[in-house]
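Hi L.,

As promised, YceK/YidQ family lipoprotein:
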Amino acid sequence: MRIVVTALVMTLLGGCATANETFGNGQLCGLHPYCGAATDIEVIKATTAENAGALRVLAPLAIIDLPFSIIADTLILPYTIFHMKPAEE
């Protein structure tokens, strides 16, 4: 039972924009507050373009992930602020 729960949590976190953007290697928007929610919004906006094609499949997933990303981004906000790169002058 514990293995099933662990596998389920890993699968759900694999689709979480916050986890992918904050702790993943391929960061699309860098490390800044609410990066996961911003990524979801960008995916939703991109799917409305006329030339979106197969990208439209991701829209429902991004819409489902958006409220969870907002919550997760809020929970890890102190971590994100601490690890932000200072603005270059």
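The CA atoms of residues 79 and 89 lie 23 Å apart.

Thanks again for sending the construct details.

K.
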